[in-house]
Structures are given as structure tokens and as C-alpha cells.
Amino acid sequence: MFPLIDCHNHSVHSFDAVDTVEAMCLRAEELGLMAFAITDHSDLDGKNLSDCINVVSRSVDEMEQFRSTHTTKCDLLTGLELGEALDFPEDAKAMIQLRPYDVIVGSYHNSPDGEDYYFMDFGQMTDEDISISLQGYFDNLIKTVQKTELDVLAHITYPLRYIVGDQGRTVHVEDYDAQLQEVLRSVIERGVSLEVNTSGLRQKIGEPLPNQRILQKYRELGGTRVSLGSDSHNTKDLANGIKTCTQMLADLGFTHITYYKKRQPILVPIG
User: Fold this and answer.
1) pLDDT at 1
2) How many CA within 13 A on the CB side of residue 9?
């Protein structure tokens, strides 16, 4: 039986999530997870540092309180999803120093214009506009790996969730192979983990972020550290797709899943 590990999740403290820290932890235990992290949003925009501090402080405090009052078989972990650290390094430093986390999940959500892809209308953009935007996105993702502090790099094909999945535009991902390979090489050189975000399996895009082809390239380049996250925002989606993606990783030749405790990697054999 595969180990069940899910280390990218959101509680009610994130603006787009609905269930409490306690409810998420109880569900993780019910599902038999070996390790589970709540990584509430800290998406920096230069103006919202105090809001991010409040969100993450409440999230981590409640996780620590739950851990102190409950005995579980599941390794319950504290963390945050640190977004746009590249653009706001001082705010990112403040968030990193806020608490002694188990894991920092680094992410980048914005187009080069500074707008989260979640909010963009691609029907108003030409194919060339989308291409230019994606080139800028992947450049910023490379810099995020190379220049910011993180343990795990999240959902590296994030824009495709909306461009391709939700709005049905065609993107030839192979057009960005050179940049994607630089992302993967940077992950390997930094010694951090590449996240397999399973959310795409339950969304219109129908594949994990990144997909199997990119994960195969990561393996060919020498990548070994992979993290798993369902990116759940409620108890219903928690661990969704984890078994499927663990099997996919095993089929690709990966031998371990990595999660982090006190910012140190723990490698769990897949088989």
C-alpha cells in the first residue's frame, strides 16, 4: 500500500477555503494519511503583509493547539503557501521569520502584469498575448526557485489550470520546454522538492500540475525529490488524487515521496 501524504492544503483562514483547521486534521486522520500539512495563503502584494501575518498566525497557532491536545497517527505539520516572494522580498522575509514552520511551499500565481491568472479573461487575449504572458510567468518561476527561500515549489503549470482548463484556450506546453527545463534544473540544484499538485485531476484541465510528461523530464534530468499536495480548500477534496499521482510517480521511476518537518526533508519510500 502506498503512503498517503498531502502537504498542500488550506483551512478557513485562507480567503478561498471553508473548513476549520480542526476539521481538516480530523479528516486527514480519518483518511489514514501518514503526513498532512496546512499551508494557508500568504500571497504577497506589497500592501497586505499584516493580513498575511494574521492569516498564517491563526492557522499555525490552531494547528499547534490541535497537535498539543490530540494524539494521532498522522504527522500533522505547520506551514504556509508563500506566494510572490520574488516580488516582495522584505515581506517574504517577515513571513518566513513569523513562525518555526515545518514547510514553506513557494508559489507564483501572477502574470507579468501582476494579475493572478485566476482572475484573467483569456477570451480577450490573442494567442501571441498568451504566449508572451506565459514566457514571463516561467521566467519569474525560474527566479522564484533561484532567489527565494522555499522547501517545495508548487504547481509549476498553474496558469494552465485557467487558460486551458477553465477557458478552453489551446497552449502547446512544449513551446516552453526550455524554460520548464530551467525550472526543473533549478529545483534540482537548490535541493528543494517539486510539487505534484493533484488538484488538476478534479478540475477541467484533467491532469496534475505539472503533468506526467514534465515529471518524466524532471526524472531524466536527475530529479528525485517530489512532494504531493491536493491543494484542498475543504475536507471533501483533501487527499483527492494522491493515490493516483503516487502510482504515476512510481511508474515513472520515483522511489520516494518527500515531506518536511521542521524544514528538514523526510523521504518516505513509495513501495
Assistant:
1) 76
2) 36
